[in-house]
Amino acid sequence: MEKAVKDAFNQGSARANAAYEIGRRRFMVDPITRLEGHGKIDIFLDEKGDVERAYMQVPELRGFEVFSIGRPAEDMPQITSRICGVCPTAHHMAATKCLDDLYKVEPTPTGRKIRELVYNTFMLEDHALHFFVLGGPDFIVGPEAPPAERNIVGVIGKVGLDAGKKVIGTRRRLRELITYFGGKVVHPVLGLPGGVSKGLNPADLPKFKQLAADAVEFATWTLDVLKKIVLGNPEYVKMITSEAFTHKTCYMGTVDDRNRVNFYDGQLRVVDCNGKEIFKFAPRQYLDYVAEHVEPWSYMKFTFLKPRGWKDFVEGPDTSIYAVAPLARLNAADGMATPLAQAAYEDFYKTLGGKPVHHTLANHWARVIEMIQAAERMQELVNDPEITGTEIRRIPTAVPQEGVGVVEAPRGTLFHHYRTDERGLITMANMIVATQNNSARIAMSVERAAKGLIKGGKVTEGLLNKVEMAFRAYDPCLGCATHSLPGHLPISLRIFDHKRELVEELRQD
Amino acid sequence: MSKPKVAFYWCASCGGCEETVVDLAEDILGVVEKVDIVLWPVAMDFKYKDVEAMPDKSILATLLNGAIRSTEQEEMARLLRRKSQYMIAYGACAHLGGIPGLANQFTREHILKFNYEDGPAMANEKKTRPQLVTEENGRTPRLPALTNVVRSLDQVVEVDYYVPGCPPTPKITRAAVTALLENRLPPKGSVIAPDIALCNECPRKATKPANISFREFKRPHQAIMDPEKCFLAQGVVCMGPSTRSGCEAACISGGMPCTGCFGPTSRVHDQGLKIMSSLCSNLEPKDEQGISAVLQGIPDPIGTFYRYGLAKSLLRRKVNLPTD
To answer: I need a labelling partner for A508 at 20 to 30 A (CA). Which of A78, A177, A240, A403 fits?
Structure first.
């Protein structure tokens, strides 16, 4: 490999790994006070030395909801983006949509389309990072490969030099589009009730048209990479479908009026573990369907389906636990909203034996299908004549009172809910972040991994890595992203025997 | 000759600063090759005890981002201070307390009560709260405690330099790292960014009025704003005049006013007071009723003028809020 190219890849890899680590180290569950850089798992053994109970804990809580009180609502898109520097665009957009609802103002067509363009670009960029650099290398290079090779450099080795150039270059251009409209890519500023703060100059359109065309090519090429390398290997397929990574829960995602996946807007649809629609509701009704349960051993709350009641950490037809994120979105919808993504969707369910798919690791494949939809949607938007319109915002006139805004963040459904006084000052803010919706299922996955790996008091070699896999499949950001890098996980794991004595402590930085 | 050692660490922050450091890597390939990164928990695998074992002052510089709000973070800040020749507060949270510092207006109890009891989606009739120690069939999982007050880094340890911004830009980060490696550092205590107000580099500078008289303040959502004209000239609060430059007016290029994340210039002690005194001395009405009518347009002075700097300001925190 040419040295310059190799250096570029190594740099790209270091950057992307670091971005990944940022997410995975951040246990930002919900308005949070960071307390430790580590997630915590306490495992308790019974007399035989088998696992009796594993507690997956999040040791942080900031106070975003409370310190939002008294702020002008229009500042919320910028304040709440600071919940997470890895996916600020998701919080920014959920907050902005919440302002539309609060002020009862419909964005202008151009305003809405610019938001959607930025949002789909963000979705594609974030998913690409995960697939090529973060979770994906596990599969592309191979789960048994040495950790040092399970990174983008290893990916290059497997798929060729051009791949690296393409991934790094495409992501850079996608981030430039977000900066164009948002001023900054980390903590953008475009969102206001009724539209956006900046329009698209027609002179700049050709460059974005080219980007969108390249994005579609990039996303479909990514699917080819996945198919050739991952799905072409029966061992991988066996792992994806293994019992250890399967949970029968409900699934939630946002759908359009034809029940197709939509990242930016729509109704929330929930299916049970048989794939049957059990609830469908508008964002405004979320309190009738979603509730939060507290366990004394974690600062993270566990979200469940309210009509079914909290039934503990159980799965099956009656469970009130639901999952969000790519696989859940596909399971909760009847199809994709764009043609190439729809074809990939049909192939996905045909290959994995029909809907719904319960294999957590299938999230990687679902993510690539979503990349295709995001790219196709970008292309639709840049070719829409209204995208360069000058009516980018509508001034709200209603007296504000209460609003709810929902988007599909890369890692799942994200709710923002504000109440204000008549001047539009926040009196109550509630946010339920993507990974919090997944928290119960993640806790179950971690416990299952522990139970499978610790027998007779013996801690299996590589326990942390396997527990990590239980995490990583969700691309979890316990609050925004507890991503985990192939090779290691930032957790501390403590094992107590039946007398509750600490017998072992493993810590992975 | 061995390469200078550099450490990165983070405390209470969102991860955006790390993104910037990471984005930088491509730009300063040459610089990165000149240093030995001894601690970067976000990107590399290092152990706390390895740092503890290093001789004092053996790290050239630590770049620390995030505010301080737990004993663990405070300990880490002290340890790195001891091991480093230069302690650099990186980003608005370490520099000024940042947006998490707005929590200093509220008590810990308020936060916990909302999160676990009063939140609209709570299903918690028993009012369960996370416990430092939980008892469940003899099993006792433990959690760390939360503190009341958010502090900037220099309220905990001595800080040599500051790199401002939420997040800092790759450009000013590169300038700071280069200054460090080439030993061209400004006087101790400096903020490493141009020491002049943002208006100086604002593309709308030409339309900034020399004399201004405010009849009303408009909030950004209340009016369609002229994309070329100074925000203040349009009656929209912009923190530019009391904020240090260096971001190249990023938010303004996104069509929104400055919110002050780079903090004040060296000549200003309290960023919020500075802009308040400047705005208020230019109100057109001179009677109390008229003045308060104009100020209706700034309904949240703390969040507007101290969005990033409350923890470090003269106001600092809610009256009688305990620090532990």
So the answer is: A240
Give the pLDDT confidence of B151-170 residue by residue, as tens digits. 999 999 999 999 999 999 98
Q: Please indicate if any CB of chain A lies within 8 Å of the CB of B182.
A: no
Please, which residues have CB within 8 angstroms of residue A396's CB and are 6 or more apart in sequence? A103, A104, A105, A193, A194, B221
d(CA A155, CA A149): 8
What pLDDT is recorded for position A30?
27
Q: Identify all chain B residues contacting A402, using CB atoms and an 8 Å cutoff.
A: none
3-state class of A261 per DSSP?
strand
Taking the CA of residue A370 and the nearest CA in chain B, the distance in Å comes to 24
Task: Report the 10 Å Cβ neighbour count for B86.
Answer: 18
Phi, psi at B32, each rounded to 5°: -60, -35
**Which residues does A67 contact at the CB level (< 8 Å), separation at least 6?**
A31, B100, B102, B103, B105, B106, B111
Contact B106/A at CB under 8 A: yes
CB–CB contact A490 B221 (8 Å): no
Task: Respond yes or no on whether the N-terminal peptide bond of residue A143 is cis (omega within 30° of 0).
Answer: no
Give A263-303 as a DSSP string.
SSS-EEEEE-TTS-EEEEE-GGGHHHHEEEE--TT-SS-EE
Single pTM value for the model: 0.90
Is B140 an 8 Å CB contact of chain A?
yes
Q: Hey, are the CB atoms on A190 and B256 less than 8 Å from each other? A: yes
In this structure, the strands spanning A277-281 and A267-271 are antiparallel
Please judge whether B18 and A18 are an interchain contact, meaning their C-beta atoms are less than 8 angstroms apart.
yes
Q: Is cis: bond before A490, omega within 30 of 0?
A: no
Tell me the HSE value of B55 on the side-chain side, using a 13 A CA sphere. 4
**Secondary structure letter of residue B67 according to DSSP:** B
Is the Cβ of B25 closer than 8 Å to some Cβ of chain A? yes
Using one digit for the tens of pLDDT, what is the confidence trace for B37-60? 777 665 554 556 778 889 999 999
pLDDT at A286 over 50: yes
What is residue A251's three-state secondary structure? strand
pLDDT of res. B38: 76
pLDDT of A37 > 50? The answer is no
Q: Is A413 helix (H, G, I), strand (E, B) or coil?
A: strand
Is there a contact between A11 and B29 if contact means CB atoms under 8 Å apart?
yes
A427 SS3 class:
strand
Structure tokens at A253: 């995602």
Q: What is the CA radius of gyration of chain B?
A: 22
Mean pLDDT over the full length of chain A? 83
Higher-pLDDT residue of A380 and A3 is: A380
Check whether A25 has a pLDDT greater than 50. no
Contact flag B224-A395 (C-beta cutoff 8 Å): yes
B254/A381 Cα distance (integer angstroms):
20
Cβ–Cβ of A52/B139 closer than 8 Å? yes
